[in-house]
Amino acid sequence: MAETSRGLMLEEPLIFEQDSPGLCGVDLPEPPLVIDRLGGLERQEAIGLPGLSEPAVVRHYTRLSQKNVGIDSVFYPLGSCTMKHNPRINEKLARLPGLADIHPFQPASTVQGALELIDLTAHWLKTLTGMPAIAMSPAAGAHGEFCGLMTIRAALEDRREKRLRILVPESAHGTNPASAAACGFTVDPIPATARGRVDLAAMKAKLGGDVAGLMLTNPNTCGLFEDEILEIAEAVHQAGGYFYCDGANYNAIVGRVRVADLGVDVMHINLHKTFSTPHGGGGPGAGPTVLSAALAPFAPLPAVVHDDRGFRLVEHAAQSGAKPCGRLKGYHGQFGVFVRALAYMMSMGADGLRQASSDAVLSANYLLAELASELTPSFAGPCMHEALFDDRFLKDTGVTTLDFAKAMIDEGFHPMTMYFPLVVHGALLMEPTETESKDTLDRFIASLRGLARRAKGGAAASFKAAPVHTPRRRLDETAAARTPVLRWRR
Ligand SMILES: *Cc1c(COP(=O)(O)O)cnc(C)c1O
Hints:
Elements lengths: L53 H13 L21 H7 L2 H4 L11 H18 L3 E3 L5 H18 L6 E5 L5 H8 L3 E5 L9 H7 L4 E7 L11 H10 L3 E5 L19 E3 L2 H4 L14 E3 L11 E5 L2 E5 L2 H4 L14 H37 L4 E2 L9 E4 L10 H10 L6 E2 L9 E3 L7 H19 L3 H6 L11 H6 L8
Helix pairs in contact: 2-11, 4-11, 5-6, 11-13
The structure holds pyridoxal-5'-phosphate.
């Protein structure tokens, strides 16, 4: 038995390392010899596929699947991610053959239900945000940012104005400056105040005739509502710019805030965060992007429209009568994610969505209040959907935020987000969401309080050793980053 196997948590070698040449899961007759079917381009040597029996293959992949720590196995308090429970009814509906097995090239007359589903999902999102238009095709939050910025660029070109600067607060998610740069804008950072919010005076001082717009996350990545957002929107508009809102944290305000009332011109919605779709392994996601009347004519194609003949797709600029900024991806968007989002919205109902955002904020504030005695909250007062702490409580203990996170694994909790946002030192950012019970939160709180006391009591060495109850001990992250081994060699 491998040294790193613990109990029934078995070490899992690569499937190539389990190779027994000649073994096979099936017993088929030799194929007939076909001479030169590929004109001499046939493979001349074996490609080295491993030989395993069927049970060995089943066990290999089943064990790998069990190593997947996720929201379905433990409390997963990552901040800036909204790792909520994804109701199974959504999955069931997304797998219905009439929804899962259709093809984007089918004639519109044969997929009226699917087009109606896209239209209905769009309708819910527009209604919840109060925004008049939406682009459904962006495939993720970052793609929605890209879509919004393309739309802004198209609107500026239409105004024949050259504005190339985008203002982005220091606390922003890294995708914000990246999307702006990818769209050809230059990024100008805005500092945060001691209250963890945009410095309004500093922001106003940066406004000018070359500013295309501002990207602001609300609630922001410190888990705080930008309470001067109306003044911010007005100042940006007065300077001739557009106001982009990063809506990744929309889970905190659904049903409570009409985004349109905040003066927002464009906002992406991460369906996979706010409206339930399993995520975290890199997809799938969807980032529908709502638009104000000013930007609506520049929305990308395709769009689903409805008239007395039914639903159809507008695919080309000439058909649309508007000035679309372009096209973001093949086909019509992440359809399976739309199914999940619509199932979620319809099963929750408007009242349920409002309840969910309220409960998410309540849970975060419960963590903030209960942990304030042992950890150091970064900002005064209540928070929105996430509770932000920094590492001042670890001062002089020799324990870092990373050590603390590793010790949490031994306690049975996936660590929170660490070292983000960058505006506080050694950040610990926790987002419990609405789906955790008070019981889970109480266990989490007791565990974190205990760890904090242990750190302050001089147990740095035990933190440096953590995790000890996992199959793997602490990894050498520097070596992993500097000399990654990405290919298995026989
Ligand atoms: C998650 C997130 C994004 C990016 O969304 P993706 O769907 O991962 O591309 C952008 N901004 C914020 C604040 C986020 O939390």
